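User: quick one, fold this
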Amino acid sequence: MCLSLTMSLSLVGCSGKGTASAPKSAAPTGTLGDPASETIGGLSLGATPASVEKLLGAPATKSPPQEMGATGEFVSDWHWTTGETLSMAGSTADAAPTVGSITLEAPSKLTTSRGVGIGTSRAEVETIYKQFLGVGRQEGEPDTTSPEQLIIGSVYGGTFFQFTDGKVSRIFVGAGAE
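Assistant:
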């Protein structure tokens, strides 16, 4: 089985409003194997541009929409200097997009629905998400857990934690493979 990883590293360097310290999101109502049930600083998959900009302000940069061969969606990456990147997806290049994935990196202060943010230790993440470890993985899907990565849910849709020196360095919510 061949997995096409679609997560992208983002370098953010322009100015934007962002949030210096956002409140913890409400706990998700669904299973965390479903990325739509996780929220980041009040943001969720499927959120509209208006709701995104209400929470984060206008993005510092927006890439032009590009058609994704695997999904047929048109995706534009929106970046904030505060460490957030949202992939905004629409059915056409001119369609109103919605949040397709959420990425956090330093210096973001946003947290998951359970209070995990950049700098949280791996031990804390594993304790906080203990009941969801291994849940949501599809039959035959490889376990991609390593010292550098922990996925809550599935590579096809979940919350991905990346670690550097035992601390969260990146959080991604969405589909990492198609």
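User: anything notable?
Assistant: Residues 1-33 have pLDDT under 50 and may be disordered.
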